[in-house]
Amino acid sequence: MSDDTYDMNLGKMRGALNGLAGLGDRARVLEGQYLADHERYKLWNGDSSHPDDYYEKTQPDDEKTTQTLIGTIKSLGLAITAAHSALLESLDSVKAVHADVTELIEQQERIADDDSGYESDDSGYGSGDDESGGGKH
Fold first, then answer.
1. How confident is the model over 82-106, as pLDDT tens digits?
2. Helix, strand, coil shares of the chain as percentages rounded to 5?
3. Where are the chain's structural domains?
4. Per the CB 3.0–4.6 Å rule, which of 20, 48, 51, 99 could disulfide with 55?
5. Where are stretches of biased composition, namely Acidic residues (predicted)?
C-alpha cells in the first residue's frame, strides 16, 4: 500500500547523470569510427564499377547492415541524450520544490517567532489556574 510519499535519492540521480554525461556524444564518435573502419573493407565484395554475381548478391545486405547499424548508433545516442535531459530536468524540479518548501518552512518559523501573543513557556499548562472554563459544561 502506498503511503503517498515521494522519495528521491539525489545521490543516485547525480550518479546516473554523471554516468550518462557524454555518452550521447560518444555515440556520434562511434558512428564516425565505424564509417572510417568500414571504408577500409568497403570493397570486400567487389567493385561497383565492375559488378559480378557475388557483388550483386552481397551488396544489398552490406548496405542494409551498414545503414541499420548507423541508425541504431544514432538512435542510441539520441535516447541517451534524452534520458540525460529528462534526469537533469527532474533534478532541477526537485531542487526548485525543495527550495520553495524550505522557504515556506522558514517563513512559518519567522511568523511563529514574531507572534507576540505566543509564549513558548508552558509553565501555566495544567496548573488549574485556567480561567477559560475548560471543564464540562
1. 999 998 898 888 888 888 888 999 9
2. 65, 0, 30
3. 21-112
4. 51
5. 114-137
